Amino acid sequence: MSIRQILKAAFEGMIIVAVGILPTYFFARTTTLTCERGPKEQINCVKSENIYGIIYFKDEHIPSLENAWVSEDCDYESCTYQVVLHASRGNFPLTDYTSSGTRSKEEIVDQINIFIHSSSEPTLEIETSIGVLGFMLPIVFVSIGLLIFFAQVRKALLQ
User: Mean pLDDT across the stretch 128-143?
Assistant: First the structure.
């Protein structure tokens, strides 16, 4: 096997690794909404996003939260849903993506709206994530890519 073939195979392995890493941004994100009661019962929140709880990349301050609801976006085939927060500065989606199913989103909306209209709790923290798919899909691609890469490097060293 020539060096050119080995480099080509190793490059293909690295492409598969990249295929695993790129979806991590979309599938492994966790969004945390932390809200606190301020003066005059004003609800101020911070929306934080991270990947696997390790890489933090975005904090968004949401002052004067007023309520939340589930928005619906339908086309000719299906509908997707998203939690939207309404605050004094406008509307803020809880996540940057929409997905099917309303049950989990309605539960989040209920938690937020109960917190807003109840003065007994000083803080609220809600965490959303994609789940097992977001964890497993990138790991499978990265593992396969690394196996291909190292197998080709080993093959080159043994020749």
Answer: 74
